[in-house]
Design brief:
The structure is a single chain. The chain has one domain (2-130): Rossmann fold, CATH 3.40.50.1010. The protein is built from 6 helices and 5 strands. The protein has a 5-stranded parallel β-sheet. The chain is of the alpha/beta class. It is 50% helix and 13% strand.
Length: 132
């Protein structure tokens, strides 16, 4: 399975045909993380065309499977969030959403397709496929 990060989903919603073409060439099924759904709606609601973009997100969700949260993803998130020295709060550069996306990919043995590999670097065992 390929798990798309939020930036690639936003590119699709903005009409980037390159992402779609890339996905058509890959035989793996595509999905997104529940945390990405939240980010997509947040972006839609803060845009100047909130109503239209909200509708685009809803239509996108009709065609794209969503990996829902479960205890394994939550446990992996907790470990990622607290990686580092004892008592640390993980990497200050990573948002909780980024960590949930990584945890969902790990939990589902999925490859994360991203255009921003720097956001996910250093996460043990995470398989990344870099777009562009």
């Amino acid at each position: 399975m390929l798990l798309l990060d939020t930036d690639l989903c936003l590119a699709i919603l903005k009409g980037d045909r390159g992402v779609l073409s890339h996905l058509q060439d890959d035989p793996d099924p595509v999905a997104i993380c529940f945390a990405t759904v939240g980010e997509l709606f947040a972006a839609a609601y803060t845009s100047t065309a909130a109503l239209r973009n909200n509708q685009l997100v809803q239509e996108f969700l009709l065609t794209t499977p969503v990996v829902e949260s479960n205890n394994d993803i939550a446990a992996r998130f907790g470990r990622l969030r607290n990686q580092g020295s004892p008592g640390s709060q993980g990497s200050p550069d990573r948002s909780d959403t980024t960590l949930y996306i990584a945890a969902a990919a790990l939990s589902n043995d999925a490859t994360l397709l991203t255009g921003r590999p720097e956001a996910f670097q250093g996460i043990p065992e995470l398989k990344l496929h870099i777009y562009r």
